[in-house]
């Protein structure tokens, strides 16, 4: 089942800037992050995905141009969360697959080392965002024009 009938956007880029969608994405991202950590650790683990991780992942996935030019780390994290929520609502990715993609980056990570956890999470979210980008049609020309106009 998809929820796309409840959420109408003129294009994906509009959705990615929706603060309410970002709030939904925040909850969804934290669930995915917790599931991925749980799989990797082989024990239940609840955690919040840091904005630093999400903003860096957005940059590394090549999707920074989807956010306004003067966005701070928090704003970039919101865009990443909105992208993930949008993809889920559109049926482009499910929670289990997203957690699997993210958990792959955690294999062999020492969970006592915060820096290694963050680095692995950045890589995992980068891979997740790239997977989503392959499944959602962005207007790349529009993004390029917006960037050139900055």
UniProtKB/TrEMBL annotation:
This is Uncharacterized protein. It comes from candidate division MSBL1 archaeon SCGC-AAA259I09. GO terms for molecular function: ribonuclease III activity. Pfam families: Ribonucleas_3_2. InterPro entries: Ribo_III_sf_archaeal (IPR038133), Ribonuclease_III_archaeal (IPR021568), RNase_III_sf (IPR036389). GO terms for biological process: RNA processing.
């Amino acid at each position: 089942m998809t929820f796309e009938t409840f959420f109408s956007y003129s294009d994906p880029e509009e959705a990615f800037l929706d603060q309410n969608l970002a709030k939904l994405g925040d909850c969804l991202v934290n669930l995915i992050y917790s599931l991925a950590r749980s799989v990797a650790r082989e024990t239940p683990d609840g955690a919040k995905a840091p904005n630093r991780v999400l903003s860096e992942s957005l940059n590394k996935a090549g999707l920074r141009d989807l956010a306004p030019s003067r966005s701070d780390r928090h704003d970039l994290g919101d865009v990443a969360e909105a992208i993930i929520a949008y993809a889920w609502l559109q049926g482009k990715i499910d929670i289990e697959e997203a957690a699997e993609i993210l958990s792959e980056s955690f294999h062999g990570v020492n969970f006592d080392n915060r820096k290694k956890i963050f680095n692995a999470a950045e890589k995992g979210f980068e891979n997740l965002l790239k997977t989503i980008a392959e499944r959602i049609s962005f207007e790349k020309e529009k993004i390029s024009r917006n960037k050139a106009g900055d």
